[in-house]
Amino acid sequence: MSEQLDITFQALADPTRRAILSMLLEDDMAVTDVAEPFEMSLTAISKHLGILSRAGLISQERRGRVKWCKLEPDALRDASIWMQSFGQFEAVNLDAFEKFLAAELSGGDAALPNED
Question: Is the full-model pTM beyond 0.90?
Answer without folding.
Answer: no
